[in-house]
Design a protein that fits this description.
CATH topology: Nucleotidyltransferase, domain 5
Distance between the termini: 62 Å
CATH architecture: 2-Layer Sandwich
Helix content: 25-40%
Number of helices: 6
Strand content: 15-25%
Order of helices and strands: EEHEHHEEHHH
Length: 198
């Protein structure tokens, strides 16, 4: 059972990211402020919700949230600043888009870089505990999945429409066969080690 708020008398924004562990593509983040009476029977941590139900939840959240923001940091910047900093930056950019200023931020995970002196609470597995973090996880995940499906049109051999850039067996085999693209994260050392005999 998801809780609505950590501090019911405050305006809270839930924040989460998607794609931190992927081999290819950007990292996405979302920030969501929900109304007091927000509810949906399918709402949960995005990893616990199947793709069909995530696609049902996305428009419902966007239509009923008091405010939301979605942002991404591409793979080139991830390679420059590292994935953790990129995840925090994406969250900050998502928070920048909120039309309502929150009193507090609920962050999924155990670390965060403070944002505009707004108090924050880091909550491990928070996307399975609070509605606003779960909603943020759904938005970040669905927007990133849509992005990766579009990239799949350009590079179908990596099967991004299915694996979304994660290091699945089919993705790793495609990297071995075709190498990496401009969308792959070079800092992740994903190229196979090939020993050449001379």
């Amino acid at each position: 059972m998801l809780s609505s708020f950590l501090y019911p008398d405050e305006i809270e924004a839930g924040c989460d990211e998607a794609g931190r562990g992927c081999y290819a593509g950007p990292v996405f983040a979302a920030a969501v402020i929900l109304p007091v009476d927000f509810d949906h029977p399918l709402l949960n941590d995005s990893k616990q919700v199947n793709e069909k139900n995530r696609d049902i939840l996305r428009p419902y959240i966007e239509e009923n949230a008091l405010a939301y923001g979605i942002a991404m940091i591409n793979n080139e910047e991830i390679d420059q600043i590292n994935i953790l900093k990129a995840s925090f930056k994406a969250m900050h950019l998502a928070l920048d888009q909120l039309k309502l200023r929150p009193d507090r931020l609920l962050i999924d995970g155990n670390r965060f870089v403070p944002y505009q002196e707004i108090p924050h609470n880091c909550i491990i597995k928070g996307d399975g505990k609070y509605k606003n973090i779960a909603a943020a996880s759904i938005l970040a995940k669905t927007h990133r999945d849509s992005y990766m499906k579009n990239l799949d049109i350009e590079f179908p051999m990596y099967n991004w429409k299915k694996n979304k850039g994660y290091g699945t067996l089919d993705h790793r085999k495609a990297i071995e066969q075709f190498g990496i693209t401009s969308y792959h994260r070079k800092s992740f050392n994903i190229l196979p080690i090939q020993t050449k005999l001379f």
